[in-house]
Amino acid sequence: MRPVHVLLSDLKSEIMTDVHAFIDLSVEQYGVERSVKGNATLCSFDGKYQIKIAMQDKLHFDERIYAAKALIDECLNEWSENSRSELKLIVQAAFDVDKEGKINTVKVLALRRHDIQDEKWQRAMQAISDSLHIQTTREYVRFYERDDETGEYILINLDFAKL
């Protein structure tokens, strides 16, 4: 298994190097530099194949997330003083932890979409923003082949778990 792992790892590295060099060469023609982050789709000349490069940040919160939670709890207690307790559950669910004790970043970040002008809420949203950090950035490469009949691109799956 180890030789196959090394082979795939080397292949990914070689592909990424080639793709980045191609993009760098393409943007260099216009006197600019490529953004380090960002997704890209490259097509073969005949349009039969596509390579998609995707960047994904793995986010985490630091200890300031607990200040945000406390402020949000204060808001909820004030706003729902004469309301049913089920209303609190909706917002508090954003801070539920998974099996590993981690807070779901997507749920918490969704709270920032609400345009609530309450001063405590605004401080809580600032605490969420301040506590958010990029832990790592992962780069993925996917290959597609166009189906001649439908014209749709079909994933050429290289993930062992999905084969």
**What does the average pLDDT come to?**
88
The main pleated sheet reads as: 4 strands, antiparallel
Strand order of the largest sheet: 1-2-3-4
Distance between the termini: 16 Å
By DSSP, the count of extended strands is 4
What is the C-alpha radius of gyration, as a whole number of Å?
A: 23 Å
Describe the global form: elongated
Helix content: 40-55%
Low-confidence stretches are: none
Count the helices. How many? 5
- The ordered string of helix (H) and strand (E) elements is HEEHHHHEE
Coarse structural class: alpha+beta
Roughly what fraction of the amino acids lie in strands? 15-25%
Detailed description of the structure:
With 163 residues, the chain is α+β, with helices and mostly antiparallel strands. The chain has 5 helices and 4 strands; from the N terminus they run H-E-E-H-H-H-H-E-E. A 4-stranded antiparallel beta sheet has the order 1-2-3-4. Strand 3 and strand 4 form a beta hairpin. The longest helix is centred in the first third of the chain and has 27 residues, at 2-28. The chain is elongated and about 65 Å long. The mean pLDDT is 88.
